[in-house]
């Protein structure tokens, strides 16, 4: 099955964060592909990936980047496939640089910006699945089950001192 979601990141060093997006896509049964594509180090690859995304059938692109995090915005500039940006928690500024780089897009080229780090990556995966669930009933059912289990887990274990 061809990928519906493209998960890209600026460096291999982003993988410990971005694997959280991939893990939830796997759990929700969403077909996906994973690649390192750097806005700075492989700009031509980024250009080609973004400009071919729509015709290749991608429905959502999740792009993680840290520091001067141009990847999500530059990819969004070359495609109308919705781009979800994940700010990587950088060492120097704890990811605030990444967050602001991704969130502060000039008008006309939107990037849906998630939280810094692992929560943002996981939520990007869930959000991508929810977008696809608009037309895919199998994925919709899996998301509803995930939500129910997440709620039930808390209801079943209300006392945090007991495992
Ligand atoms: C960005 O620069 C990447 O997204 C990464 O978060 C950051 C640092 O990359 P490395 O120097 O670890 O490859 O492009």
From TrEMBL:
It is an enzyme of class 5 (isomerase). It catalyses: 5-carboxyamino-1-(5-phospho-D-ribosyl)imidazole + H(+) = 5-amino-1-(5-phospho-D-ribosyl)imidazole-4-carboxylate. Its EC number is 5.4.99.18. It holds the Pfam family AIRC. Substrate binds at residues 11, 14, 41. GO terms for molecular function: 5-(carboxyamino)imidazole ribonucleotide mutase activity; lyase activity. One of its GO terms (biological process) is 'de novo' IMP biosynthetic process. Residues 3-154 form the PurE domain. Keywords: Isomerase, Lyase, Purine biosynthesis. Pathway: Purine metabolism; IMP biosynthesis via de novo pathway; 5-amino-1-(5-phospho-D-ribosyl)imidazole-4-carboxylate from 5-amino-1-(5-phospho-D-ribosyl)imidazole (N5-CAIR route): step 2/2. The keyword Isomerase applies. NCBIfam families: purE. PANTHER family: PHOSPHORIBOSYLAMINOIMIDAZOLE CARBOXYLASE, PHOSPHORIBOSYLAMINOIMIDAZOLE CARBOXYLASE CATALYTIC SUBUNIT. Catalyzes the conversion of N5-carboxyaminoimidazole ribonucleotide (N5-CAIR) to 4-carboxy-5-aminoimidazole ribonucleotide (CAIR). Belongs to the AIR carboxylase family. Class I subfamily. This is N5-carboxyaminoimidazole ribonucleotide mutase. It comes from Ruthia magnifica subsp. Calyptogena magnifica. The gene is purE.
């Amino acid at each position: 099955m061809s990928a519906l979601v493209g998960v890209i990141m600026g460096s291999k060093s982003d993988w410990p964060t971005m694997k959280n997006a991939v893990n939830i896509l796997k759990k929700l049964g969403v077909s996906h592909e994973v690649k390192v594509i750097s806005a700075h180090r492989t700009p031509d690859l980024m250009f080609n990936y973004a400009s071919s995304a729509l015709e290749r059938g991608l429905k959502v692109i999740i792009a993680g980047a840290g520091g001067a995090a141009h990847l999500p915005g530059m990819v969004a500039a070359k495609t109308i496939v919705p781009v979800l940006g994940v700010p990587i928690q950088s060492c120097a500024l704890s990811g605030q640089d990444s967050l602001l780089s991704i969130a502060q897009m000039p008008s006309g080229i939107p990037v849906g910006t998630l939280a810094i780090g692992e929560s943002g990556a996981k939520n990007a995966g869930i959000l991508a699945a929810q977008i696809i669930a608009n037309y895919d009933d199998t994925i919709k059912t899996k998301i509803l089950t995930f939500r129910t289990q997440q709620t039930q887990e808390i209801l079943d274990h209300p006392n945090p001192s007991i495992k």
